Amino acid sequence: MTVRTITPDEHLALLRTQRSASFLQTPAWGQVKSEWRRESLGWFDGGRLVGAGLVLYRQLPKVKRYLAYLPEGPVIDWSSEQLGDWLTPMTAHLKRKGAFGVRIGPPVVTRRWSADAVKQGVADEGVTRLGEVPPTERSPQGARVVSQLQELGWRPQAVEGGFAAGQPQFNFQIPLRHRDGEQAGEPRTEDELLKGMNQQWRRNIKKAAKAGVEVSQGAEQDLKAFHDLYVHTAERDHFTPRPLSYFETMFRALNAEEPDRIKLFLGRHEGDLVAATILVRVGGHTWYSYGASSTEKRDVRGSNAVQWAMIQDALAAGADVYDLRGITDTLDPDDSHVGLIQFKVGTGGEAVEYAGEWDLPLRPLLYKAFSLYMARRGR
């Protein structure tokens, strides 16, 4: 196995053969993260391209050395019994490129919890973390990946904080295909998805329709309206919003790479924008990426309406999964984050734990200096 730089076109061609690959591993995402140096990596078995990855290089202050970051990647055969065959030539290549350390995010599931299991955990006063709830399913492959990474000297990173705040280790997803029985692999119907939701979600979807909430797809020129609502949401929910230019770059770069890779959904009531969301798709995987909602007219349930429209869109496109992205692992009713989990649990999907982010120091002293620098910044 050899690793070398490939063109964005070669990178994209490999991704088109994958049923699931993170949008953070697309060549276009490197354009969105324009403040970082980027590189498309290819894995070759002989002359055949068998894997790909987007590397983002973050420079250490005042030194031409970099942390090489592959968010939710690379896209390789993670079922391999010999991950060293894949990772060792990658780290050698990155070291030659000036990396003092490497951070990866294996797109490998370790545990799953059904919506019922999560709800039971929230209701149990003795449980404060998702990890304390017995999982509905454990992944032997996920356990194998974690074990091999440890043997190869990789270090797991803390879920909170970390480099660029890290990517979420816990996500909430709705499977759009049957997993078991005679229908395994077959798409679920809209009726089946609605039946899987809790009563409040179904009621809110009906309430939005009855109130006259209309959901449409927006174009790039509608991003300003989305962004105004998003800034309003940020003020209400106390987070720092990204600038409009970020979403404009994201929209152009992702849609230039593949038509319909990114979509904007707008929910209006009597002409007022009450909810807006951004969807991203790669292969059979669809993500709810960003959302915004108005404080006024919350009773018309615009957020539920746009979520349902995106789920319907994903189902119509033949997607395998609708991904509501990150959740924290807290189930403590006194923690403000638990409301987000409860909102997502209502969809009837499942909580999914990934292997998380892992570091390999290549130049230990520089890696230690970087870790101290990040700690001083509050990580």
Descriptive notes:
InterPro entries: Acyl_CoA_acyltransferase (IPR016181), FEMABX (IPR003447), PG_Glycine_Bridge_Synth (IPR050644). One of its GO terms (biological process) is peptidoglycan biosynthetic process. Belongs to the FemABX family. By secondary structure, the protein is an alpha+beta fold. The protein has 2 domains: 2-105 and 357-376, Gcn5-related N-acetyltransferase (GNAT) (Aminopeptidase, 3-Layer(aba) Sandwich), CATH 3.40.630; 177-319, Aminopeptidase (3-Layer(aba) Sandwich), CATH 3.40.630. Helices cover 35% and strands 26% of the residues. Helix 7 crosses helix 10 (302-316).
Short description:
The chain is of the alpha+beta class and 379 residues long.
Chain-wise SSE layout:
Layout: E1 2-5, H1 8-15, H2 27-32, E2 37-45, E3 48-59, E4 66-70, H3 84-96, E5 99-104, E6 109-114, H4 115-123, E7 137-138, H5 140-151, E8 155-156, E9 170-175, H6 190-196, H7 199-211, E10 214-218, H8 223-237, H9 244-257, E11 262-269, E12 272-282, E13 285-293, H10 302-316, E14 321-326, H11 338-345, E15 350-354, E16 358-361, H12 364-376
Helix pairs in contact: 7-10
GO biological process, one term: regulation of cell shape
Family: Belongs to the FemABX family.
GO molecular function: aminoacyltransferase activity
What does the oligomeric state look like here? single chain
Number of discrete domains: 2
Low-pLDDT residue spans: 161-165
CATH level 1 name of the largest domain = Alpha Beta
Query: What is the CATH superfamily of the largest domain?
Result: Gcn5-related N-acetyltransferase (GNAT)
Q: What CATH architecture of the largest domain do you see?
A: 3-Layer(aba) Sandwich
Strand content: 25-35%
Q: Using only CA atoms, what is the Rg?
A: 21 Å
SSE ordering: EHHEEEHEEHEHEEHHEHHEEEHEHEEH
Sheet/helix structural class: alpha+beta
The helix content, as a percent range, equals 25-40%
Shape: globular
Largest sheet: 9 strands, mixed
CATH topology (level 3) name of the largest domain? Aminopeptidase
Number of helices: 12
